[in-house]
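> example.struct
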């Protein structure tokens, strides 16, 4: 499983949620990458990201917004 987290460095919620997401990804033993959404704007738009933080799992949008870490945890660690 490959997980990419798109965040905004200017967003305090993104920093907190990204830290939670990285922790969940470690528990899943998933390859994880964190990207700055503004540096990858075209790719983020192609993926359908409208608000960071957003999670891409194996190339597909899994979820976005402040509740995405809970959603990821429920899906794979329940």
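> example.seq
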């Amino acid at each position: 499983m490959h997980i990419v987290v798109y965040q905004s460095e200017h967003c305090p919620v993104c920093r907190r949620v990204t830290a939670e997401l990285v922790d969940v990804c470690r528990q899943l033993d998933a390859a994880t990458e964190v990207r700055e959404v503004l540096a990858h704007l075209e790719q983020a738009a192609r993926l359908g990201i409208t608000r960071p933080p957003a999670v891409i799992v194996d190339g597909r949008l899994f979820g976005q917004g402040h509740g995405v870490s809970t959603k990821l945890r429920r899906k794979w660690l329940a």
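> remarks
The first strand starts at residue 2 and ends at 7.
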